[in-house]
């Protein structure tokens, strides 16, 4: 039995009943529509007010929101496809998976960059304008995408080199493990995730602990940033689980073999959907400047 057929057998074994499948799809679609609707309002607010164009923090936030909208849309599309079409052609699956992986891995890197920017603004505010320029911010966003591509594209190159052309026209249940199925790819992915996990957490710990310490001893404005920082740290924690998700799925399969599909659904909601809903809370509602312009946007829409 080849890898693809083996995977199909496993998926059939954990396939949901009709009622449970409908319930899960309704929950996922409702959450994705809600998140994307709010994020669309945040994006339009950003685009219609020039004040945000000159602030590196809001530019990074704009990139984060756009990135999250793409990620949520693609992952929900794959989720629905897994229940309706069940199998799709490999080249279509690879295209969707690659873009979804880019945006998924962008989020922790973007949050790490926002942590550094926040550290500079709170701890060394006199040098913030010189260090955090608009040009450097856009270069940093390009660096985020380049880093994610360097992490993900080798999967495609290895698959193109190993698999025959007919493979890309065959049909599979669309997962990363089935689209890029060679064992060396899985091993390389695990090693890459370990490196990312260590590097990003070093940045997070170094910046956030210094910010929290500064917020306790500095001005009143710095103290107000404490709750935002804690929310931001929680978002980073959820997003960073992307790097340990493959190991977690293997553990869940051993711990809860009879409820494996439910465990995967819970992982998807907690690790993929929930972190994308926190961004709107941190900057769309709690941030005074953004909240002021967002209220104007909502009032205009209501009128």
Provide a descriptive summary of the structure in words:
Helix content is 83%, strand content 1%. The protein is mainly α and 303 residues long. A two-stranded antiparallel ribbon has the order 1-2. Helix 2 (18-48) packs antiparallel against helix 3 (56-84), helix 3 (56-84) runs parallel beside helix 6 (134-162) and helix 10 runs antiparallel to helix 11. The longest helix is centred in the middle third of the chain and has 35 residues, at 183-217. The protein is globular, with a radius of gyration of 21 Å.
In short, what is this structure?
With 303 residues, the protein is an all-alpha fold. The protein has 12 helices and 2 strands; from the N terminus they run H-H-H-E-H-H-H-E-H-H-H-H-H-H.
Low-confidence stretches: 1-14
Gyration radius from CA atoms, angstroms:
21 Å
Largest sheet: 2 strands, antiparallel
Give the helix proportion (percent range): over 70%
Shape: globular
Widest β-sheet, arrangement of strands: 1-2
End-to-end distance, in Å?
Answer: 62 Å
Count helical runs: 12
User: Helix and strand succession?
Assistant: HHHEHHHEHHHHHH
Based on secondary structure, the structural category is mainly alpha
Number of strands: 2
